[in-house]
Amino acid sequence: MGRKKELAEKTVWRSDPHTQVKHLMYRHYLHCWMAKILQRFPEATIVDAFAGPGVYQDGPPGSPIVIARAFLEHTAYRRFGKLNLVCLEERPDRVTELRRQVARLPASPGLNVQVAEPGLFAERQAELSALAHRGKADMPVLWLLDPFDLKSVPFSLVRRCMAGRRDEVLFTFFSNELHRFCQREHYDKAMDTYFGSDLWRSAVQVKGAGARKEAFAEAYEQMLARHRLLSGRFGIRISNQSARYHLILATHSEAGLKCWNPAAWKLDGYTGRGASAATVMQPDLFGGQAVVDRLDEALRSHAGTAQRWSALSSEAARLGFVDKHLRTALTKLAAEGLAIRVEPVKAPTPWPEGCIVRFYAPEDLKLEEAED
Ligand SMILES: C[S@@+](CC[C@H](N)C(=O)[O-])C[C@H]1O[C@@H](n2cnc3c(N)ncnc32)[C@H](O)[C@@H]1O
Fold first, then answer.
1. How many domains does the chain have?
2. How remote is the CA of residue 50 from the centroid of ligand 1, in Å?
3. Among the three residues 218, 251, 280, which one is the final residue of a domain in this structure?
């Protein structure tokens, strides 16, 4: 049976390597999200809106079980508030299988799993939102949106999931389909609905499959930014090809990025931008030499100013980096004489939290040389 037929017809289908990479990314993100959210709030919710049957034919768990296990096996579990896990799946046979899988989880007073009656996400979003928020608009809610196609999650629906101030959405972005079909007749309507605008159009001109897929994902992130949302993306690849799809996180809070970025860098220590099953298992071929060009460029643009650590750390997070990269980039600039810590005067490490850094341009160094 071909893959398409298998996904369309069978209740439970075989897993594949890229699904494992997607689940790894989920697990790293969930580990951090749970530690932050469930130790701060008495209750939070995860909505798995395209839940699937909860298991793959060859044995691996499906996403609802991955989420439940991330909770039950978390090292800080005993300090956690309550987690509601709300699942929706369109097909009745998959719902039955998912309920069977959920029933096999160890009972835990802290974990409340609800598998809704079968239904379509677009029709049930309002009901899921009410179940998730439980009458509290500011309840932290993480939405996982992992459909099979781009029609199921128009931009308007992503926005509805972001209505609460602590709502976050982690969704599958169909970069490959966009790349393949963007020039087909009448496909532009589907693209407009998917992006909530025609911001995707400039990406069509980009040459090369990998670059164009990144350009689509970038355009989507720009659209999120227009709605004052922060975002991060990670490419899920098959062997050494360009991204098959992206995972995109949309969040209101920088704290979301402070979980997302480390997860991305764990799976791809070189660029933090994407991984396949082959690369995720590779030893670090680059000896920890992460590509920090974008950060380096941003820091150089501060020439002539002094910046607080908090602002620099925030800027690094928004560019997809973690504090470790910020320190590396600052050390490199300092070695060129272009960055100097001005506060505190004494510190056990070069770039402590709370420090203030003054930046210079290469021309400033030339001035000094001229006077020698
Ligand atoms: C990619 S699979 C989900 C895999 C699962 N998230 C995992 O990682 O193990 C998508 C699932 O969503 C279901 N589905 C498709 N369209 C849907 C819709 N509009 N609403 C809810 N579920 C839908 C499919 O039947 C399928 O089981």
1. 2
2. 4
3. 280
